[in-house]
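Lecture notes, part 5. Sequence design as translation. It can be helpful to think of inverse folding as translation between two languages: the language of shapes and the language of residues. The source text, in structure tokens, appears below.
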């Protein structure tokens, strides 16, 4: 096992052949796009990641290079219910299979359950970590139970109530009665 701070660039074939297990603890401030999503102080928050790279068979029995990635962090967001701060806990646990090219990935994508990545001598693990955390963030961050009472209705005392309109069928019935 190799301990890192920031996820390194990997030679996937070499890492898989040696069955590399890498792990690290990084700061959110190392990830520009995650910091753009944060609302509040997040730079000193920890991001824990592990990456296991190995060679094993795919669904067809052919040997393939695989990556098992886990990431754990918490990102401050704004609750869309009460508009207060909420800490969103993110857990990623994903399997990826490497293929030789984008064309092979497109061809095989619909027929397999795992996600496909193109094999590389300088695979950017840090970008994958950041991408996976961004995709794991909820579309609508919110508390399980908001810490303040949330108003579920809006009313303005100064707003005049709408004038009651007569029922058009009642008006027609009155006209019919006069005829």
């Amino acid at each position: 096992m190799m301990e890192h701070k920031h996820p390194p660039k990997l030679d996937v074939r070499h890492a898989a052949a040696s069955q590399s297990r890498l792990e690290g603890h990084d700061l959110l401030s190392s990830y520009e796009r995650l910091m753009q999503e944060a609302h509040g102080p997040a730079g000193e928050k920890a991001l824990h990641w592990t990456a296991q790279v190995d060679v094993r068979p795919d669904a067809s029995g052919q040997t393939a290079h695989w990556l098992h990635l886990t990431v754990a962090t918490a990102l401050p967001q704004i609750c869309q219910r009460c508009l207060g701060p909420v800490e969103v806990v993110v857990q990623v646990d994903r399997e990826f299979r490497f293929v030789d090219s984008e064309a092979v990935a497109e061809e095989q994508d619909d027929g397999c359950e795992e996600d496909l990545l193109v094999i590389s001598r300088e695979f950017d693990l840090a970008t994958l970590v950041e991408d996976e955390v961004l995709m794991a963030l909820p579309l609508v961050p919110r508390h399980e139970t908001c810490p303040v009472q949330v108003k579920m209705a809006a009313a303005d005392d100064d707003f005049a109530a709408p004038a009651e309109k007569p029922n058009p069928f009642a008006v027609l019935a009155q006209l019919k009665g006069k005829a």
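The translated text above is only one of many valid answers, since several sequences can fold into similar shapes. Helices lie at 12-17, 32-37, 102-109, 125-136, 168-178.
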